[in-house]
Task: structure prediction
Amino acid sequence: MKPATIRIAIASFAKVAIAVRNVAFVVKQIVTVKPALTEGNKMADPVGFEGANVLMSGEAANCRDLEVFADGKQFVSCWRLTAEEMSEIAKTGVVWVSVWGGGMPPILISGTALVFIGERPAKAEPIIPKRKDAL
Result:
């Protein structure tokens, strides 16, 4: 092999090695997600609220019923955290969100009411049993 050819082969090998190293880095970054809804990974309980106009039925084993306000553009739900969950958020400063499906729709997480009754914020009710007949 001529010296020039050797340099090209070495340079090509170096590029392949860098590419392989980058792929290996990406492969190391593959993560898993806890499956379904379990007590170990759920946070908050859905809460009914004034103005809720739809009950989304959680019929799958990993879903719960959810009262929402729907206006054709968005769904708004309300969630209540336990003291332990609030403590965890205060400690970590983060909330993780899992949206099931094939895409990631825009979402908004808020600590204040997003639904209003006239001029005042809607009031959250206590955690409620299924109320399919009420909505």
Remarks:
- The first strand starts at residue 45 and ends at 47.
- The chain is about 25% helix and 15% strand.
